[in-house]
């Protein structure tokens, strides 16, 4: 899944109509509704305020007076196609006097959201694994030289050395190949797995 880091605002003009598209990172429908309410107030003179959002627990879209299926749903489809999560897209339209027709509206709202996503800083959801490996001091020198895959490493020292390591799950098997180079016995233990946007 993909998410945006920061709010994006982008404007396009199509047949004299202004389409101002906002993208927001939102965690739930409550926050999305608050933003939509605020934008409706800010752009009270706009012809339409169209939106779509996808969160972990909710998916919604609204045409806001545009012909059914020509605005909110095309917006939502762009978000789905780009595998987005926790995102709200709102497009404000100021009618320019030229009717676009159903197909023209679909293309306009789709273009507004697509171009806005190109401007966004995208983060990707990855599976993260945390684990411990306990080894001898002698082997710790070997491990220290080969921790480039690790996203985070903490060491504690006792009669042996224990590493608390965080890395991408997809790199775990490659990391385990390092164990072949260990001379002494070691203890390997996965402590936690989670998903994280990076």
Explain what this protein looks like in three dimensions.
By secondary structure, the chain is α+β, with helices and mostly antiparallel strands. The chain folds into 2 domains: 2-120, Ribosomal Protein S5, domain 2 (2-Layer Sandwich), CATH 3.30.230; 125-197, Alpha-Beta Plaits (2-Layer Sandwich), CATH 3.30.70.120. The protein is 28% helix and 39% strand. It is built from 5 helices and 10 strands; from the N terminus they run E-E-E-H-E-E-H-E-H-E-H-E-E-H-E. It has helices spanning 29-42, 72-81, 101-119, 137-144, 172-176, and strands spanning 2-4, 8-14, 17-25, 48-54, 59-62, 87-94, 122-135, 152-157, 161-168, 187-197. Strands 1, 7, 8, 9 and 10 form a 5-stranded antiparallel sheet that branches. The longest helix has 19 residues, at 101-119. The protein is rod-shaped, with a radius of gyration of 24 Å. The termini are close together. The model has no long low-confidence stretch (mean pLDDT 94).
List the helices and strands and how they pair.
Elements: E1 2-4, E2 8-14, E3 17-25, H1 29-42, E4 48-54, E5 59-62, H2 72-81, E6 87-94, H3 101-119, E7 122-135, H4 137-144, E8 152-157, E9 161-168, H5 172-176, E10 187-197
Antiparallel strand pairs: 1-7, 2-3, 3-6, 4-5, 4-6, 7-9, 7-10, 8-9
Helix pairs in contact: 2-3
């Amino acid at each position: 899944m993909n998410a945006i880091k920061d709010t994006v605002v982008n404007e396009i003009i199509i047949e004299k109509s202004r389409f101002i598209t906002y993208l927001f990172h939102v965690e739930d429908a409550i926050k999305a509704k608050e933003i939509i309410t605020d934008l409706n107030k800010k752009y009270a003179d706009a012809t339409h305020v169209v939106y779509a959002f996808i969160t972990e627990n909710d998916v919604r879209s609204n045409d806001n007076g545009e012909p059914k299926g020509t605005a909110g749903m095309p917006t939502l489809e762009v978000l789905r196609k780009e595998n987005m999560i926790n995102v709200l897209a709102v497009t404000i339209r100021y009618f320019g006097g030229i009717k676009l027709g159903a197909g023209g509206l679909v293309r306009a709202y789709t273009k507004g959201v697509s171009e806005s996503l190109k401007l966004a800083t995208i983060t990707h959801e990855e599976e993260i694994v945390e684990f411990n490996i306990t080894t001898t001091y002698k082997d710790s020198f070997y491990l220290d030289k080969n921790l480039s895959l690790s996203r985070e490493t903490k060491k504690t020292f006792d009669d042996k050395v224990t590493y608390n390591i965080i890395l991408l799950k997809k790199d775990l098997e490659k990391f385990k190949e390092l164990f072949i180079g260990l001379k002494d016995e070691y203890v390997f233990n996965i402590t936690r797995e989670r998903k994280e946007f990076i």
